[in-house]
Specification:
Strand content: 5-15%
Family: Belongs to the protein-tyrosine phosphatase family. Non-receptor class dual specificity subfamily.
Signal peptide: 1-25
Radius of gyration: 18 Å
GO molecular function: MAP kinase phosphatase activity; protein tyrosine/serine/threonine phosphatase activity
Helix content: 40-55%
Largest sheet: 3 strands, parallel
Oligomer: single chain
Number of helices: 9
Domain Tyrosine-protein phosphatase: 51-200
Strand order of the largest sheet: 2-1-3
Distance between the termini: 58 Å
Pfam families: DSPc
């Protein structure tokens, strides 16, 4: 009927891409039609609003496209490596040449933000890429996608689980101390599978 699910997606788009608050986005849409997102969707939109507000207040945007393309800001933040979790010509089209003049090392992950996309083949290679750079005192790695709420956080969660031996819940809690994240349902299932696999591996290590 177009009053809940599709309306929620439109509201999220306006908040992320047009920098509107939730109330402003609702008012903008209601100028054209009545909408009524269900209580669960409204709760998720309020969480999204808090995340976006935190980013703007702190001028961080650590996972967002705008920061990834702002080379002056990257230099100021001391970023030495970039992981683009939304790479590809039809998504966020950055590449090594974009950062050649600022000596930033680039890694692209051509991931689509939908529940059916298999992100698992990228978990270990990306985690290893980050791990090899993070121990260096002068190195900082920026992981980003389009909005910074699903693909990039999923890659960071996988890194924390693989390289820092955190459980999925512990990894989520670690990130949530700084910002809210919303991996899609498919990515969460894949991360739960990774969590189970790593837990079994740790258990076997202890037994040997």
């Amino acid at each position: 009927m177009g009053v809940s699910r599709s309306a929620t997606l439109v509201l999220a788009f306006l908040m992320i891409c047009e920098n509107l608050t939730l109330v402003e986005a609702i008012n903008a849409v209601r100028q054209h039609r009545d909408i009524c997102p269900n209580a669960g969707f409204l709760s998720q939109l309020r969480r999204l609003e808090r995340t976006l507000a935190w980013d703007r207040k702190n001028k961080m945007g650590a996972y967002r496209l705008a920061t990834a393309r702002d080379k002056a800001t990257l230099s100021q933040l001391g970023i030495t490596h970039v992981v683009n979790a939304a790479a590809g010509p039809h998504r966020i089209n950055t590449d090594p040449q974009v950062y050649a003049d600022v000596a930033i090392e680039y890694r692209g992950v051509e991931a689509a933000d939908n529940a059916g996309f298999d992100l698992r083949p990228f978990f270990h290679p990306t985690a290893e890429f980050i791990q090899k750079r993070c121990p260096k005192k002068a190195s900082k790695v920026l992981v980003h996608c389009g909005a910074g709420i699903s693909r990039a956080p999923s890659m960071v969660l996988a890194y924390l689980m693989i390289c820092e031996d955190l459980t999925l819940v512990e990894a989520i809690n670690a990130i949530e101390k700084h910002r809210h994240v919303f991996p899609n349902e498919g990515f969460l299932d894949q991360l739960r599978h990774l969590d189970t696999t790593l837990s079994l591996q740790r258990r076997r290590k202890k037994e040997t």
